[in-house]
Predict the 3D structure of the following.
Amino acid sequence: MAGEVAVTHVDLAPHPAREASALAWLDEVELARRERYHSGPRRCFVLCRAALRSLLCAELGCRNQQLRFQESEYGKPFALVDGQPASIGFNVSHSGSHGLIACAPRGRLGIDVEEIAPPRHLESLIEAVMGPQEQAELSRMSGDAQLRQFFRLWTCKEALIKALGTGFSTDISRFQVPAGLRQGASSGVFRFEQMPGVAWQLDDIGSAEFAAALARELLPAESGLS
Amino acid sequence: MATTEERIRKLVDDNLEIEGRTAGTPLHPEYSLRDSGVSSVAFVAFAKLVADEFGVTFSPEDCAKYNTVGELITRLEG
């Protein structure tokens, strides 16, 4: 748990029996969407969506058949129960064999997980997505330390834009992860320059196997802005 | 001279690891990179490569907006 947020890990390794039972949770819209995917992402979608449905049914006290999903303008999903928006925040991310679902009773949420694998053109990627101080700090690192730090920062940034709900329409090189987190702290508070009145709790929830971060909108009472 | 599809195909094959894809085979206009399991990191890197290759401003948001190869070609040739 991070604050009031429950984070659930979903094992996305191939498992035909689990995939078959997960399929039974999906509605006709999701089954049609499933057809668009290639086999790997198809498995991730089915297993994550079934797990999400199970979690939301438990949290909201509803039946699976009452639950539907829609997407915002930027593709962020939200839940409907009997056609009415459900008062719950959630966000889903997956990478490789790891899926993470964050769920909280209130506030906007974003979560991101990335398996740590060297991307091609890491140097140019650092230039494209990191801010000036982040670039300078990464340039003083090398090898595995640089790679892990790149993914730590990346997941923090992606969790924030997912929480904000704008996806990559927000240029992630235009903001920087708080200095404390960059220097190894496991959590910090972040504010977007264009909306200083909104604070976001940012937690590094990575493990030895993957980098991951959780962003949660702080209520005014929590952020000292009440 | 290489067509836009051939140039995109080369960028895809040289830079993205896509399950089930055979390098060099044509990309169908309905082919979607987002549905093929490309990670967000690779997706953003790919947007930068497209921008460099075609000499245009092309952001990760554009890459998400032009979801299929056909839409991407239309955008780059427009």
User: Anything to note?
Assistant: Chain B has a mean pLDDT of 86. The interface with chain A takes residues 15, 18-20, 32, 35-37, 39-42, 44-45, 48-49, 59-61, 63-64 of chain B (CB under 8 Å).
